[in-house]
Amino acid sequence: MQNPRLAGRYAKSLVDLATEKGQLETVYADMKYLQAVCKSSRDFVNLLKSPVIKADQKNSIINSVTNGKVSELTAAFNTLLVKKGREGDLYEIANAFIDQYNEIKGIHKVVLTTAVPVSEELKKSIEQKVKAEKSFANIELETKTDESLIGGFVLEFNNNLVDASILRDLKDIKKQFLQNLYVQQLR
Questions:
Q1: Burial of residue 1 (number of CB atoms within 10 Å: 0-12, 13-18, 19+)
Q2: Which of 29, 68, 95, 131 keeps 20 to 30 A from 107, CA to CA?
Q3: Angle CA(58)–CA(6)–CA(69) in degrees, nearest 5?
Q4: Which pTM value belongs to this model?
């Protein structure tokens, strides 16, 4: 069960503490690592959310996964989450932390979804185009592939969506045929 308010509060506390200790960049790297672990291993996330597994076992599993890969501050924060029974929200907290960090640093997240993988040259070109059009100083470009798009792309940023995919065009054409604008309406 997702709880964005809870995740935001824990993330805000960690941002404040990391800023106070001068370790914001380090904790950001740690949260990126935890986010990647949670994205790549659904079993790990399910284990954290499991009510059957005891807290001390969860704590030792988190420590074994993160041992030597995260800072002491992040390790202490993870232990606190387990003590409070919030280890199941680790993924959401990591995402909220990254979002708050990006807001502090003025980094805009842009998601590019295409039907096939794109080249690095095209990524750079799209990055430059978005920076120029929207006056963004910093961009974090994430690319995804979705074969159902058939062709074209979908670009998401700041709650905006630019859908230039063949799939959307086909849906628009289907809607026009279903409305049948060319047959006179009977009254």
A1: exposed
A2: 68
A3: 45
A4: 0.83
